[in-house]
Amino acid sequence: MASPWSRIAVPLRRLLSVRPPLRPLSTAAAANPEPHHDSSESSSKGSVNGDDAIFVKGPSAMGSATRDGTSVTMPMSFMTGSIVGKRFYKDVTTRLADDGNGWTVMLDYRTLKTPSKRSLKLPTLALANAIAAEWEYQQADGIRPFTMPLMKLACTALERVPLTRVKVIENLMKKFHQDLLFYRAPGDTDLTSRVLEKQVEKFEPILDWVETEFGVKPIVHSSFFGVKQEDCLVKVIEDALKRTTDCELAAIDAMAATAHSLIISLGIFHGRLGIEEAIELIRLEEDLQVDRWGLVEGGHDVDIADLQVQISSAAVFLGLSRRL
């Protein structure tokens, strides 16, 4: 039987095999044991002092990336859609962490760090290579943070989740009763009746899986405010979230926020749903409207592209973070 993660094999292969494999640090170091900087490089990049580490820091009032000899400070636009700074490094490599527990990303000879100046220590080499690829793909005229979703998720998993795990789970469970897959259209008009038919066709098999996996079938409703689910289902879902790793919870939270559905997120987590199937469920009602009224260029197409990026990157991050 194929692995559940065969559903995301194509996105993984595209992400990891578009460019040649990254060189191990030892290979890069052997090829260039002592990094050389001429006077022009020194004036443009600044002197390198201390532990020669790179930090991706929190929000700054400045409009572009700033750095000194040991750090790189990304502005608020690092988390949005702006281009920040120019590419200041040549080679991107990965290596085993100093303590032998996890993998790190190197920009030239400097270690990439999180906003709180912790080493970006990743659980698997595959994930480290994928994040290194995001940095490798940056162009000389500027770093584009919006093209690095895996880097963003890694920082969330390493810094935000450990400190706010209880709150993250609490927020997920608070929205659980309004899950997208629990809602049914009224079916009192031609349009809503078509939506209802599709919801029954597409959503019910997933709810049957929930019953098989967690022992309770969710209650469906037509209320805008949702309907309270049975306490036993709420508890078993909450317990399942508590057993996740930080990387897993970060991915589940990201997918649930995008999909407006914890069930879809858990379906991907357990291998019941693939990326394309999940996106079809999320867009079911809107796609029916597009079929009837047409697609708005610059609106629907942009929403679809954004949804594909958000769900795919979180699913790929989830798969790569797992030790095989």
Strand order of the biggest β-sheet: 1-6-5-4
Q: What portion of the residues fall into strands of 2 or more residues?
A: 5-15%
- Give the tally of structural domains: 2
Report the total helices: 12
Distance between the termini: 16 Å
The overall pLDDT average reads 80
Summarize the structure.
By secondary structure, this protein is α+β, with helices and mostly antiparallel strands.
In words, what does this structure look like?
The protein is an alpha+beta fold and about 325 residues long. It folds into 2 domains: about 5-145, ATP12-like (2-Layer Sandwich), CATH 3.30.2180; about 155-320, ATP12-like fold, CATH 1.10.3580. It is about 50% helix and about 5% strand. It is built from 12 helices and 6 strands. It has helices at about 10-15, 25-30, 40-45, 125-135, 150-175, 190-215, 230-240, 245-260, 260-270, 275-280, 285-295, 300-320, and strands spanning about 55, 65, 70-75, 90-95, 105, 110-115. The strands form 2 sheets. A 4-stranded mixed sheet has the order 1-6-5-4, with helices on both faces. Strand 2 and strand 3 form a beta hairpin. Helix 5 (about 150-175) crosses helix 12 and helix 8 (about 245-260) packs antiparallel against helix 12. The longest helix is centred in the middle third of the chain and has 28 residues, at about 150-175. It is globular and about 65 Å long. Residues about 1-75 have low confidence and may be disordered.
